[in-house]
Specification:
The complex is a heterodimer of chains A (141) and B (507). Chain A is built from seven helices and four strands. With 141 residues, chain A is an alpha+beta fold. Chain A has a four-stranded mixed β-sheet, covered by helices on one side. Chain A is elongated. In chain B, 40% of the residues lie in helices and 15% in strands. In chain B, strand 7, helix 11 and strand 8 form a beta-alpha-beta unit. In chain B, helix 6 crosses helix 13, helix 9 packs across helix 11 and helix 10 packs across helix 13. Chain B starts with a strand and ends in a 10-residue tail after the last helix. The chains are: A alpha+beta (141), B alpha/beta (507). Chains A and B meet through helix 2, helix 4 and helix 5 of A and helix 1, helix 9, helix 11, strand 12 and strand 16 of B.
Chain lengths: 141, 507
Amino acid sequence: MKYSPFSQEAALGLLASLREEKGPVLMALQLMQSEFGYVDKACVELIANFFNKSRADVHGVLTFYHDLRTMPPTEHQISLCVAEACQAVGARELELAVKNKFGDEVQNAYCFGNCALGPAVMVDGKLIGRASLEKISAARL
Amino acid sequence: MKVFVPGDSAAISVGADDVAAAITKIDSSIEIIRNGSRGALWLETLVEVETPSGRIAYGPVTVQDVSSLFEADFLHGGSHALSLGKTDEISWLANQDRVTFARVGIIDPLSLDAYCAHGGLLGLRKALELSSQALIDEVTDSGLRGRGGAAFPAGIKWRTAAQATSDQKYICCNADEGDSGTFADRMLIEGDPFTLIEGMTIAAIAVGATEGIVYLRSEYPYAIAILQKAIDIARADSWLGKSVLGSAHSFDIQIRVGAGSYVCGEETAMLESIEGKRGVVRAKPPLPAIEGLFGKPTIINNVLTLATVPMILAEGAAVYKARGVGRSLGTQVFQLAGNIARGGIVETAFGITLKELINTYGGGTLTGRPLRAVQIGGPLGAYFSTAQFETSMDYESLIAAGGMLGHGGIVVFDDTVDLAVQAKFAMEFCAIESCGKCTPCRIGSTRGAETIDLIIQGVRVYENKRLLLDLCEVMTDGSLCAMGGLTPMPVKSAMINFSSDFTGAAR
């Protein structure tokens, strides 16, 4: 996935698009991440000032949600469902194999709504059903 | 020539996009319609061809099968090893009673013409003729209860919000379908998004709301894209906006995307999240119907609840409530998931037995090994054994059996499952996803996982089981919401129904 390099000017330009939104803090953090790939630590103060919130408010939201990250992502991102329906068809065994091969690129997820065709894995935003190490490797290219 | 290749993300996950591209590559004159999925997910990619005698199905089709389908003249219903005959006559589909899912898989989800040709907007037009009172009476009379899991009567919730006086009211659709084993909300949004928009619009007219919000999880990027397109189409068609279908009502819908938190499926945590805050649960009262989003009266309903309303209005409450048993009226969209041979959507009247769902529809396990356990109702639902297979699938019977229906997801496990490990996972999941407000949930979940670990290792098994049951009681009684309150359900049901897994001896 391609992201823009972080800059305060670009961030402020994006935040302006949320000026009319009610309850904009989570949306603002999500917007930062979708644009820059992560939420740069400078964003906390930027968002707080822009929307007249405290830094604690913004930091609290940033650290609550699993989706939000404060470090640039790896080049590929593999999200592996390890919830019950996928466990029932070998997600735990797949998890070991995938983490062994792709290491830091892999994170656990809980349900992509593909529970009849598990194990389910999201590779760079693309959903893979009946996932195997081979299928994941192929989708990652 | 029309060929249907589902654009549902489950179908795409097993190659539907590649199949569609391969068909176009061979014959670019074919009109390919990316319908939703019929719900028979084990047949995906299910390719259908429109013929004079009806739609003919082939599946499961992979990209390698496409050239042989052309050789078999599938465009005219030619026979092929993957032929399934007429789609409407596939018994797995034909025996269902599709109400909420009536159009899913049939139509192009983003064609307003197809939507209207299949009964779309009839419910909304009817609603515009009725008074708020009559409209809410109809929904109440249908017996429709909240399909998210709490099963609260929809009409009563609507009445509460309608009676509240405020300058602003909201309709919030809870599409934070986080329960493992459930995917009906996703499939409805991807396969028939206009139905949800219509249901929300009817709710808005009933209570006098002008703003709608769909809280849709980030794990469903395909659904987000389709629903956004559908909202834009409805707006361009003057269905949403200042004047709903030319009436005096104003209503518009916005999507808010979740951020990977399970507890935000709890309605008050969802409100906090929509307000841009941490998804921490609120104490009730005040009820959201009186003081909800931004402190204003708010109806919060699940996707399936709202998507069922148009049909109830169009065909009448009596037709809907003629189905079902006891106080569980109408149909339930069951979802067969996990280790199951024929998984997918089974919509049928309440009262079908678990056995019929698992064996007749599901065809047993995918691995072919003996079935050992099923979890009903998501990660907070109970684990049942085959001894409970005669249980009637309705709200009250499942509660009587020590479980709950939840959102209707059924996850099947074969005999390799260890229920002590599953019980430990339930506690671990609670520890990961707890919002942190209530101590029994925040800390009890971690202590619970540790205690189950000791039981698995055979350390003071009897004492630790007593301790675990005591902890479960504290979590049930001492947590504000279902996260901490119901995590004991999978744990205790596993201990009761699969006691041999809790002896400390290696299985």
